[in-house]
Fold:
Amino acid sequence: MNWPSRLRERGEDPDPRFSFANERTFLAWIRTALALMAGGIGLEAFAPPLAVSGLRQILAGLMVLAGVATSALAFRRWLRAEEAMRERRSLPVPRIAPVLSYGVAVVALAIFVLLVIANLG
Structure:
């Protein structure tokens, strides 16, 4: 049995507006994943050398990996929310949100500091 059939066996159909909202949220997570991957590729392709050799590649790789993880977890989040709505449970908390937001902030701050150091030196 495939996953859509297993999903439909649980609970009852939620209001379609809620399912569509859940789908829009899923697509927002996918857009975020694409932006992270594009940012990592852009950093590697277009940023000037940073103060520490090889660090640009590491930061770019971290951004691409964050995009991969976000993309991989987006469907799981959609599915958990859909199951919760079908079973009239509270919606699950997006566990990746704090990791993603703090991770992006740390990488962005590191890039900023390294660019400033590179331009001063």
Remarks:
- The chain is about 80% helix and 0% strand.
- The mean pLDDT is 90.
